[in-house]
Structures are given as C-alpha cells and as structure tokens.
Amino acid sequence: MLEAVLKPGGDAATALYIVAFSLFIVGIKQGTHPTTAKRGNLIAAGGMVVAVITTLLLDGIGNWGLIAIGLGVGGAIGVIASIRVQMTEMPQMVALYNGVGGGAVALIAWSEIRHGIAEIDHGAIASIPLDTLIPVLFAGVVGSISFWGSNVAFAKLQDLIPTRPLAVPGQQVINALLLIGIVAACVDIAVNNGDPSQAIFIGVLIAAAILGNLVVLPIGGADMPVVISLLNAFTGLSAAAAGFALDNVALIVAGTLVGSSGTILTLEMATAMNRSVGNILFAGFGGAPAGGAAASGEERPHVSIGAQDAAIKLAYADSVVIVPGYGLAVAQAQHAIKEVADELEKRGVTVNYAIHPVAGRMPGHMNVLLAEADVPYEQLREMEEINPEMPRTDVAVVVGANDVTNPAAKNDPDSPIAGMPIIEVSEAQQVIVIKRSLSPGFAGIDNDLFYEANTSMLFADAKQAAADIAAEITQL
Amino acid sequence: MSLMTEITIFVLAVFVGFEVISKVPTTLHTPLMSQTNAIHGIVMLGGLIVVGYADDPLEYIIGTIAIAFGAINIVGGFMVTDRMLGMFSRKPKPKADADGKGGA
Question: pTM of the predicted model, to two decimals?
Fold first, then answer.
C-alpha cells in the first residue's frame, strides 16, 4: 500500500489540488469547441486522477479495504454502464450519473453531521461551528433533491414511468410548504448547533427527497435535457458546499465551476429549445406535442440553431441529403448550396440531392437550377430512389422546401395533403430545415416536421444561410 | 483555510465558470453537460476523507456508498462523454444500423 505522505491542508496537497482544478478549467474550455472537445474531456479526467491520488496520499487516511470496495464497485458499474449504453440513451445516463453524485453529497453531509455530534459528545468541541454546519445543511438538502430529481428524470427518459407531465393536485402549494419546512428545520439545527438533532437532519433529507420527486414529476420528457442540466448545476453547488465543510479547495473550485458553467449551459439549452427555465419548472407542460393538434396558431416547441451548429452537424456526418425547394429557387441559393456541398465533399462526406417531383416552380425546375450550379448529375436523386436511403442518412438539409417534406401526408389521414408523396426526411437521423420562419407552406398547414425531436430549424434566407454554413465549415 | 479565503475562491470560481462557457454550439451542449457532470464527481474525495478517518460502523457504510456513488459519477461520466464525442473523430466506418434518430 502507498505510504501516506501529504499533510491535509498542507502546501503540497493544496498545490496538487490546484493542478487538478486548473486541468478542469482547461478541460471545460476545450469542451466548448468541436475540434478540442474530446481532448478537453481527457484533460479534465486527468485532473480527476490527480485529485483522487492526492487525497489517497493524505496523512492518516485509513480503512483501505473499504476505500478499495467503494472505488472498485463504483468504477466497475461506471465502466460497464458506459460501454453498454446505446447512443440514443445518453441523456438518461447523464441523469443517472448526476443523481449518484448528488447522493454522494447528501451521504457525506449526513456523515459530517454525525461526526460533529460525536465530537460534541466526546467533549472535543462545544458546538459545530456555523461555517461548517451551514454548508453541510445546504449540501444535504441540495444533494438529496438532486439525487431524487435525477432519478425521476432517468426513469422518465428510460420509460420506466410515463414521460407525460404528472401533476399532483395542489402541487405548487405542497412544494412551497415542503421548502418552508426544510428551511425551518435547517434553522432549528443551526440555532441548536451545540446539540443538533440527527433525527431532524434525516427528516430534512427525506423532505428534500420528496421535493426532488415532486419538482421533476410534472415535467414532460421533451424538457428533460434542460432539467438534467439544471440539476447538474445544483449538484455542482452542493459539492462546493461539501468543500466548504471539509475545507477542501479542490471540491470548492470544481463544484463551483460546475455550478456556474452548468447554469449558463442550462440557459443556453433552454434558449436553443425556445423555452424558458422558469416556464419548464413551474408551468408543468412540455410533453411531446400531440400530433397534428396545433393548427391553432399557438407556438409549439421547436429547436432553433445557427449556421455554426448546422456546419458542425454537417461536417461530422457521413452522408448528407440536401432537399431543395421553392425557397431555394426564390433565393437563388443554388450556387451557395453547391459551395456547402463542395466543402463537405472535401471532408469526405457523401452528398446527394433529393428532388421532389414538384420541387421548385415547375417539374424539373430544380434539376435545371442545380445543373446550372454544376451539381453533378448523378447526385440528383429522384424521390422514389432516395426515400429508402433516408434512414441511413445522417443529416437531411431542407432548403426552402415545406409541404413536400410534411410527414402529415403520410401519417395523418385527415390532413389536407394526405396521400401526397413526400420526401421522407423525418426518417433521417437528423434534419436541418433552413427557412425564413415557421410559417406554413403552399398547402397552408403547419408542418409537423419542424417540431420533431430530430429537427433543427435554421431561420434565415436560404442563400445567406448557405454562405454562412460554407464559411463555418472551412473554419472547422 | 479561513472562511473569507474560501469565499474569495468561491466567488472567483463562479466567474471563471461563467467566462469559460460562452456561446457553445448546441451540438456540444449534451457532451459538455456530461463532462461537467463528471467533474462534480470530485465529491468522491469527500467520501474518501469520511471513510479514511471514520471509526464507527454506520459511517463506514455511508462513506463507502458515497465513494461508490462518486466513482460511478466520475468513471461513467468521463467515459460516456468520450463516447458522445466519438462522433467528432474523423470519419468512422459508415454506421451499420439505421434506427435511433435522437429520441424525445
């Protein structure tokens, strides 16, 4: 076994913790750009290795058998779960990992309370100092909320419980009462810090657990990624609080970083999904919209992206199908689109064009426009020919087309365009729709495609958007 | 460390966290969330300290579970992030299976 050599809180241990959190900062920074993200993740993992080894080397650390069991069991579960998870199940996996992190924080808080009470009983201290006790209470409450909230999020995404919003009558009132009760109990513990009650603390953990369940249960599956991100930020803050209680600089910095960067990330996610965080948390809707029910003009949730995001999706795809429509013809965007295709082909992406019989202003118009822009003839594919290939397509880009891609033609027998042949872009892994707005096309009906989970909207003039995307791809 | 030193560190870390995340492409939202998720697994250090200095049975159990939870958080978190970011590696082989368009 390693000889314990570092003094807790000593210069050497602190220096190593500084190395660790510096690596976290660099890792997060690199995680914000596609070309460096993978390396950034490895750098942050390296920081974690430094932090863990430093802690294991602290003077006086014992009970190696238990530590080995905890590390062995937890590490093995983490490895196996990560290898076996399907790519489509990633979000719930993150929820689960976030939950156990929150659970760890709550358990550590409980242990710290017990430790403090034991010291008082032995007469080592007269009372638990508030600068330890308050962070411990915060960590316990937030950790418990995060644990249970994340588990509910996991269960919803995994279809273990219904993804539709589940509301309890009087929900907001119950939540408020629980929160008031939790705060009051925490104040009671803090005021009686010479003789704090472990029973009340356990009651606080349980009340926080119920609150965590009640807050997340009414939220629909579509909003879950934002909720998970928010819980992630909370867990970070609770880890920082544990750091205050344990006087551990690595925990304070790393936890706080996650708390603040996680908050920004949550806001950006909500914006990208066209939702507000407050709306998600308190309005209790946001389940996947019932198909076709929204011709009433109310705004349905959709994902809006910029040229840079579109460029990233395209540049890292294997196969891309471009679906040109009337809007492309109007915007005279065929040359700009060809430029995007050229940039993609330079990167080894297979590009095809799906031509609907009525795309453009007249049959065959689109082929002419594209031929004019020097698109090779063999890349122009007829609708019947390209549709079977859609499920194998990574990204379908709809440029100024609308009704010819509306899945309602296939799925909704009551739709005015029922039975019309369409290019089945919604079968592709991802869809990017370049369009000026969500407004209906020629048929005057809403296009369900815009609101599907794998569809991103890029609101812009087709020509401008294509030029921007081409420029962004060259930057990658 | 004095409380004021700790608060100073905390406030500075808040601003570093804000600064470091600016304008992230939506494609990277989930991987980045997953990476920061793995980083808060650092709370496992708390479990190590609890167990390392513990001397009563319940504390052994609480602390060992905390370590296991933290280890799942760390190991699973970084590995899942790495898998997500696999899509940004240069040109893997064409995808074998075609189902699984991003679920709601």
Answer: 0.73
